[in-house]
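Dear support,

I submitted the protein below through the web form. The confirmation email said the job was done, but the results page showed an empty box. After a refresh the structure appeared. I'm attaching both so you can tell me whether what I see now is the final result or a partial one.
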Amino acid sequence: MFNGEKPCQMDHLDRILLSGIYNVRKGKTQLHKWAERLVVLCGTCLIVSSVKDCQTGKMHILPLVGGKVEEVKRRQYSLAFSSAGAQAQTYHVSFETLAEYQRWQRQASKVVSQRISTVDLSCQSLEEVPEHLFYSQDITYLNLRHNFMQLERPGGLDTFYKFSQLKGLNLSHNKLGLFPVLLCEISTLTELNLSCNGLHDLPSQIGNLLNLQTLCLDGNLLTTLPEELGNLQQLSSLGISFNNFSQIPEVYEKLMMLDKVVMAGNRVEVLHLGVLNRMSHIKHVDLRMNHLKTMVIENLEGNKYITHMDLRDNQLTDLDLSSLCNLEQLHCERNQLRELTLSGFSLRTLYANSNRLTAVNVYPVPSLLTSLELSRNLLECVPDWACETKKIEILDVSYNLLTEVPMRILSSLSLRKLMVGHNHVQNLPALVEHIPLEVLDIQHNLLTRLPDTLFSKALNLRYLNASANSLESLPSACAGEESLSALQLLYLTNNLLTDQCVPVLVGHPHLRILHLANNQLQTFPASKLNKLEQLEELNLSGNKLKTIPTTIANCRRLHTLVAHSNNISIFPEILQLPQIQFVDLSCNDLTEILIPETLPATLQDLDLTGNTNLVLEHKTLDTFSHITTLKIDQKPLPTTDSTVTSTFWSHGLAEMAGQRNKLCVSALAVDNFAEGVGAVYGMFDGDRNEELPRLLQCTMADVLLEEVQQSTNDTVFMANTFLVSHRKLGMAGQKLGSSALLCYIRPDTADPTSSFSLTVANVGTCQAVLCRSGKPVPLSKVFSLEQDPQEAQRVKDQKAIITEDNKVNGVTCCTRMLGCTYLYPWILPKPHISSIPLTIQDELLILGNKALWEHLSYTEAVNAVRRVQDPLAASKKLCTLAQSYGCQDNVGAMVVYLNIGEEGCTCEMNGLSLPGPVGFAPTTIIKDPPKPTTPSSSSGIASEFSSEMSTSEVSSEVGSTASDEHNTVGLDAGLLPRPERRCSLHPMPTSGVFQRQPSCATFSSNQSDNGLDSDDDQPVEGVITNGSKVEVEVDIHCCRGRDLDNSPTLMENPPALCPEERARGLFFGIRRQNSVNSGILLPVSKDKTELQKSPSTSCLYGKKLSNGSIVPLEDSLNLIEVATEAPKKKTGYFAAPTQLEPEDQFVVPRDLEEEVKEQMKHHQECRPEPEPSEEDRTELPEEFDTAL
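What the results page shows now:
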C-alpha cells in the first residue's frame, strides 16, 4: 500500500528501451535546423531533450502509440517519429550507423503498433499532462506521482474527465491541497491514489465513484470522512493512515466490502471495542503509532470476526483482548504494558517485545500457537501456558529476568528455536529424550556448565551461542565412537574455557563457524584442528596462544581467521589455503613472515598491526601488493619530533565487514588537531552505502576546523559543521544518507578547573560513551523511530509514510542523518550536541556504530576494555564481542584512551622564552632532519595498503579540501627554525591565522611498478606504488619548521622591491620541483589577489587517514594543485579554497624588510635571526574558506 519513495536515476528505469545522442529536427517541414539532442525511447514515448538540460526536466515527450515510424528518404539512416491525433507532432532523428537505424526502427515499430493502456509520467515535474494524451482512448492507468499537477490548465486535473476509459489514477505527492472535485465525474475509476497531498476534507461528490475499489488517502490532514463514501459498495481497500482521525470513522460500518481498518499514525487515544463489534466484516485492525492509552469494553459480547490486530508503538499500560475469541495474531511491541490478557482459542503468533510485562495471561492454552516473542520485558519465569502448548516452534524470552528454563520448554517436541539470552539462568535441565531443537541462544547468563546430554539428545542442533557465561568445560558430543552431531555454528566467546575443551570440538565434524575468543586457551592441539575439515571461520582472539597449529592447512574451506591479541610469534601456515580471505593477527608478537612465492588470489584483508617487533622487507611488501587491504605498523624514525605524539590521548580503531561483502563504515581520527591543541574523532555509518561514509571521513575535519575559526561556541560550530557537510553531500548529488558522530577535544577555556572539554555531536545511530570512574556516561542520542518517540511524532506530524518495518517512506529508520535531502523535512541534518569537561577520572572514550551498540550495552563495553592496555586491542575486542554475540552486519569501534592531568605535560620549558603570537620561533638549528620521502609518524600507528580504487576516485573528488601540511623547504634555520615543543595542555598561543587541517583521503599511485617513486632512486619504506591504494597513517600537524636534506639554495641576488611591493609586504612562494618535496624559495612580486588566483605552488607532504597513513606524493597526486588549477567557485561540493593557504605565504612586515633582505644575502652563513619584539609583529589577516 505504501510506496517506498526511493530515489532512482532516469537511466536506471526499466522502461527505458533505447537512448543515445543524435541529430534531431522537429516538424515535417525543413523550417527547423538539425541539432544534437538526447533521444530516449522510454516505454511508449519518445523523449527529446537537450544534452545540457537532460537532467533538469526540460524535455519534449512524443507519444508513439497509434502514431507512425517512417523512413526519411532524403537523409541516410534517418527515421521520422510521428504521434497520433489531429495535432500530431513529428521528430526526425538521424543515426550514425545502419545497425542503430535498424535497432531503433524495429523497437519503435513495436511501440507504434501496440495499444497503450498504461502511461507512467511520475517524477517529471509536470503541471499538466501533454494534450495529445487525451486523443488516446485506450489509456486505463495513469501514474502522475511526484509532480506538481494543477487544476485549471489545458491539461490539468479538471480536464481528466476526457479519459473515458481511465480506471487507475495515481496523484500522490502532488501538493494539491484540495480534492479535485471534477475527478468524481470519471465514473470508470476503480483505483484512486491521493496520498500525501495535504487534503483537509473530501467532497460529497466522491460518492459518485460507484466503481471505485481502492482509495488511498494516506499522509493527509483528514479528520472525518463524508457519509456519501458509504455509497461505494465495491470499495475493498481504504487507506487513511497518517491523518488526524481521533476515532474510527462510522462510515466503515457501511463499507461491507472492506475487511481491514488501516489507520496507522493517527490520533486515536481510546479504542472502543464496541465500535469494532458492529463491523462484522472487519478482520484486520491496524492502529499502530497512534496515541492509544486505554481500551473500552462496552459489553460482554465477544468479537468473533477480528483475526489480526496491530497496536505497536502506542502508550498502552494494560491490554485485555480476551473478548476477541478468534484473534490469531497480535502485535503490541513498544508499548508500556505491564499485563497482557488474551484468548487462546485461535492464537497463532504473539509479538509483545519491548514492554514492561510481568505477566502474560492466555486462556485457554493456545493449541495453535507457533511463535511467541516476549523479549525485553520484566518476566521472571516462562508462563505456564507456554510450556503446555503443543505446536510452538519459536520462543524468544531474551532480555528478561529469568532464573531457570523449564524442563517442559527445553524438552518440547515442537520447539525449534529457543532464545534465552541476557537473563539470569544458572543451569539448564538435563535432557532425557531426543528433541528437535535447531537454534539455542543462551548467551549472557550465569551458566557454569551445559547439560551433559545436550549434544547427544539435540541431534538437530545447528546453532549454539553460549557466549558471555562462565563455562569452564563443554559436554561430549557423542556417547559412541561416531558422532551424529549436526552443529555448524558454535559461539563460546568470553567464557572460562581452557585447553581441555578443544578435544570435545572434534565431535562436531560439520562445524563451520567457531568462536572461542576471550577465553583461557594456551594451546590448540594440532591433531584436533586437523579433524575440523569443514571449518570456514575461526576466531581465537583474546587468548594466550603462542602458535596456530600447522594442521590448519588441512582446513581447506577456511576463509576467515581472527587471532588478534594473543602471544603468537610464528606466522601460521594459512597463505596456502585456497579460500582464505580475511586474516587478523594484530596485537601479537610476530617478528617475521615466511610466505610462499604466490599468494591465494582470494586473500583480501591481512591485518598485522600491533606487532611491534615485526619487520617486513620490501620484497615481502611487494608480494602483498595485490591484497585489497594490508595493515601494518609504520615505524617511527629516531629523529621524529616528539611533538607529533600527544600524551593526553591515543586511539585504536577496528572495522569489520561481517557477513556483508562491503564495508560501509568509516572512521576519522586526528590525534593532533588544530596544531596539536586538540583531537577529533568520528564514526560514519552509511548502512548500505560505502561511498558516503568515506566522503564524510575525508572532509568533516576540514569543515570543523573552518567553523572553529569562526565561532568559539561549541553548539554553533558543531551544528554548522554538520549542516555544511549535509549541504555539500546534496550538491554532490548524494541522495542516500549516513549516520555521523563527531567528537572534538579542545582546551577548556570556560572551566578553569578542567584542562580539556569534550564536545560530541551526532545524527543517526552512531554513539559515543565516556568512561568516567569506571562507569559509562552516554554522550549521544539515537535518532530512530523505535528509540525516540519525540522524533517519531515529529515525522508523523510532517505526514511522512512510515512503513510496517518502521522506516520513513520505506528508506531508513533514522530521523536525522547527513544526506537524504529528498526526504526533507522528515529527515533532518540537525545534530544532537553535548559538551562535558574532561577530568582526571575520565579513562576512555568509545565510539561505535549501530551494530556495536545493538549487541553490547554501555556497561559491558566499558568493562570489556578499561583493563586493556592497547587501544587497538581494545577496539578489536569490542568488534569481536559484537560478532560473537550475533552481529552479522558491518561493525566499527574506536577506543580513545584519555590521560588528562599535569603529569602528561611534555613542554620544553627549561627557561626558554615563549613564542609570540605570530612570526618566528626562537632560533633553533635542526642538525639531522628526516628525509622528505619518509614522513614521521607517531608510534603504534598503522599503515593500510589497498588496491581498491573507490576511495582513490573519491579522493580526486574531494581533493580541493584535502589541504596539505607544508614543510619549510629552502628556508634557513635562522629564518624559520623548529618551534618550541608544546603539549596539548599548554598549547602555543594562537596567531589568529587560519590553517587548514589535512583531510583523511586515500591516494592511488600508478606512476611506477617497482615500488619506487617516479623520481626516487631508493624505495620508500613501507609504501607500495604499483597501483595499489596506499593508506599510511602519520601525524603531520607538527611538520612545519623542519628542514630537509636537500634544501635548495636561495637566490643570492634577490630583485629589488619597488615601493608598492614594500607597501604590500614581501611574499615568498615555495615552488615545487619534484616528488620528493624539494622546492626553491623565491620572492614573489605579486599582490595578494594575484596569488590567490594563481595555481598552488605548495607541495603535499603527507595525508592522514582514519586508520592511519601517509603516502609519498607524486606530481599527479598533488590534489591541492589539481584542485587549485580548477576554476574557483564560491559554492559547490568540496569547492577549492578561495584563498592561498596560509602556509604558502610568508608575510614580512614593512619594518623588517631590510632585515630579511640582509639575511637572504648571507643565508649560507646560517646566522641566527634576532627575535623580533612583540610590538613589531603584525598578524596576518584572518581568512576563511567556509561554506556558510
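Response: this is the final, complete result; the empty box was a page-load delay. The CA atoms of residues 970 and 1049 lie 6 Å apart.
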